[in-house]
Design brief:
Oligomer: single chain
Shape: globular
CATH class of the largest domain: Alpha Beta
Strand order of the largest sheet: 13-10-12-11-15-16-14-17
Largest sheet: 8 strands, antiparallel
Number of domains: 3
Structural class: alpha+beta
Distance between the termini: 25 Å
Number of helices: 13
Helix content: 25-40%
Radius of gyration: 21 Å
CATH topology of the largest domain: Uridine Diphospho-n-acetylenolpyruvylglucosamine Reductase, domain 3
CATH architecture of the largest domain: 2-Layer Sandwich
Length: 388
């Protein structure tokens, strides 16, 4: 059974005891991210932040909130919705994840194009080191003084540096209206031309996603044409009407157009949001993340071939589902000059999988920070893609 500290002071005591005794630690919240990152190696102590679910401070008028790491993400979303506000991270597995887990894995989703990632929304953090020290970075204002922002180190660290205990976020007003539009194209080139037209227009959607025919069919949204461009927009009714007019114009003669109702839109965006974590289609499945420029997004789909693929069409990130080992896909991607990382993998022994082939010179800096905070490599050993 995991150790579940009831408050931040108790979390400090638990980690200090593990550190002083040289015990290896598996650190998590609800432990929903095992398919992501590197392998979960057996540890002498398992520590969960699940009993740290408090809302420490919430100022709706200031658009800021401070919550403990164990708060379920869906509860945070529901609380903000009561004040017509939101935290538009759109992480996969939002119904199951804790806020701390979302931040530790640096999860974000379709609306990153408009709102950014966790690094853009976090204004402060409290974390606990293996020495039991509570370190506070930032505060509860959107603009803090310049200097080293220690909180940024913990985002995407997969718990390899310290335990995230409390997070301060800037939040956003919910748009008065939200609509989802689907455009279906007979070819990838036609879909990319429509994407380019949207990005060049005065209309700036919250999300613009491109699904290849294999994924569209798998999700049950296989409109005639094959390639689906999904657009989510928010604003007043007049703005929504303009979106519909202009997107219908893009669809003229070469594609199908549909405006989804709320139920259809909800089902689509949950599927899109969860796709990077969906190794559930096959016990040995993997999802590979390919990064490129917007101009080369078509090459990522070419590398994907017949495999289900989803692109954040406004940011140049493509997720490809592999029914087996991701090695062949990552080799093809690197041969094409694309940056490839295994986003999630259900293979029983991930220690034998090359998850992050070319970290670059930044890895040495990461290793130095790891040595400073966890010199004996006790925290979540190997979880940073087998590298740290």
């Amino acid at each position: 059974m995991p150790l579940e500290p009831a408050d931040i002071n108790e979390l400090s005591e638990v980690l200090a005891r593990c550190g002083s005794q040289g015990q290896s630690v598996e650190l998590g919240g609800h432990f929903t991210k095992h398919s992501m990152g590197g392998p979960v190696t057996p540890a002498e102590a398992v520590v969960s932040t699940a009993r740290l679910p408090a809302v420490a401070e919430y100022e709706p008028k200031d658009l800021t909130i401070s919550v403990e790491a164990g708060l379920p993400f869906h509860e945070l979303a529901e609380l903000l919705a009561q004040n017509n506000q939101m935290l538009p991270l759109d992480p996969p597995l939002a119904e199951e994840s804790t806020v701390g887990g979302v931040v530790a894995a640096n999860c974000c989703g379709p609306r990153r194009r408009l709102y950014g990632s966790a690094r853009d929304m976090i204004i402060g953090m409290t974390f606990v080191t293996l020495e039991g020290k509570q370190v506070r970075s930032g505060g509860m204002v959107v603009k803090n003084v310049a200097g080293l922002d220690m909180a940024k180190l913990l985002i995407g660290s997969f718990g390899t540096l310290a335990a995230i205990a409390r997070i301060n976020f800037r939040v956003y007003p919910r748009p008065p209206c939200e609509r989802t539009f689907l455009l279906s194209f007979p070819s990838l080139d036609a879909a990319l031309k429509a994407r380019d037209a949207v990005l060049r227009s005065v209309l700036q959607p919250a999300a613009i996603e491109l699904l290849n025919p294999a994924l569209a069919s798998r999700l049950g949204f296989d409109l005639p044409g094959g390639y689906l461009l999904a657009v989510e927009a928010g604003g007043i009714e007049a703005v929504m009407a303009r979106y519909e007019r202009e997107l219908k114009g893009l669809a003229r003669d070469s594609s199908e157009f549909a405006a989804l109702d709320a139920e259809q839109a909800g089902r689509l965006w949950v599927a899109i949001r969860d796709f990077p974590a969906l190794c559930r289609w096959n016990d040995a499945a993997a999802v590979v993340r390919l990064s490129t420029t917007l101009a080369r997004l078509g090459e990522a789909f070419t590398v994907a071939g017949e495999s289900p693929a989803l692109a954040r069409a406004g940011s140049g990130v493509t997720y490809v589902h592999c029914p087996g080992s991701p090695a062949d896909l990552t080799i093809r991607a690197r041969a094409a000059g694309l940056y490839a990382v295994v986003e999630s993998c259900a293979t029983p022994d991930k220690s034998q999988v090359e998850l992050w082939a070319d970290p670059g010179p930044e890895l040495e800096m990461m290793a130095r920070i790891k040595r400073d905070l966890d010199p004996r490599h006790l925290l979540n050993h190997g979880r940073l893609y087998n590298r740290l």
